[in-house]
Amino acid sequence: MSEAAPSAPRLRTRFTELLGIEYPVVQGGMMWVGRAELAAAVSEAGGLGIVTALTQPSPAELAREIERTRKLTDKPFGVNLTILPTITPPPYDEYRRAIVDSGVTIVETAGSSPEPHMEFFAEHNVRVIHKCTSVRHAVKAERLGVAAVSIDGFECAGHPGEDDVPGLVLIPAAADALTIPFIASGGFCDGRGLAAALALGADGVNMGTRFLCSAEAPVAESVKQRIIDASELDTRLIFRQLRNTARVARNAVSDEVVRILADGGTFPDVQPLVTGARGRLVFEDGDLDAGIWSVGLSQGLVRDIAPAGDLVRRIVSEAREVTLRMTEHLA
């Protein structure tokens, strides 16, 4: 655990009060990236770090990763459990058990509906934050009893859904429809974004790409440098024809996937190109064309590689400055 660094006063929202954190800044639960060092650095700085459950090869390994995180910070952190249809589903019940047995009380769910998991988490006093890409899914998640929602706009990395609604519309629409706290995801990487999200009615922000380009992110430096060098134009939307759209980095592989599907190909035709194992090689070996890898439009706003804790403090400070500048226009 690091020594306490000077920090700004708490930035209180319904989300920070719900989870007992200082700042409404959440590190997204990214596959292969959400490990102890990154999650702990974000939480230690006052945000909410997220350990990604399925990055760990087994529930036992997840329990060890949670313990490693706890040794690095005594502040709240969460665990991401992404629920997606697969040929060989992970043992979700065992991962759930590892989470609660490790004493974690904050879980971010994503992918399919969290309904099959809600009763178990409720019994163990786990607060669920469910990531949604539409207002209708967010409203359903609220009915299921989640504690908060993460509303994911079209700008995001990974799966933005099929409605193509950007955050500028999606966030206030969610604010009008929900009664529980919610945070905004997709396109956020700095204090301007945090201030904008709060102005639009959100209770905080979730950032993936920005923390992917942090010092603690366990990915090759070439990946981080590509994010800095890239613009907001350097992503690809793949799987559009399959109604399973994903936003990934533009590279030789994603270009090929788009071409094959545009020419009438089907998933079996691209499956060898899009395996998770190939994407993992990008992060581990730094070969940017080894496979597909997720990154959001916000990469066009990322200018540096910085410690995750510094990013949290910088983002909050910038948001305060933006808010103060805006109030000057009302004088």
Helix content range of the residues, please? Answer: 40-55%
User: What's the CATH architecture of the largest domain?
Assistant: Alpha-Beta Barrel
Number of domains: 2
CATH topology of the largest domain: TIM Barrel
Query: In total, how many beta strands?
Result: 10
Task: Provide a descriptive summary of the structure in words.
- The chain has 331 residues and is of the alpha/beta class.
- The protein has two domains: 14-219 and 303-328, TIM Barrel, CATH 3.20.20.70; 231-294, no CATH class.
- The protein has helices spanning 14-19, 36-44, 59-72, 92-101, 115-123, 135-144, 167-177, 191-199, 209-212, 221-229, 252-262, 267-270, 276-285, 308-328, and strands at 25-27, 49-52, 77-83, 106-111, 127-132, 148-152, 182-185, 205-207, 235-238, 246-249.
- The protein has an eight-stranded parallel sheet with strand order 1-8-7-6-5-4-3-2. Strands 9-10 form a two-stranded antiparallel ribbon.
- It is globular, with a radius of gyration of 19 Å.
- The protein starts with 13 loop residues before the first helix and ends with a helix.
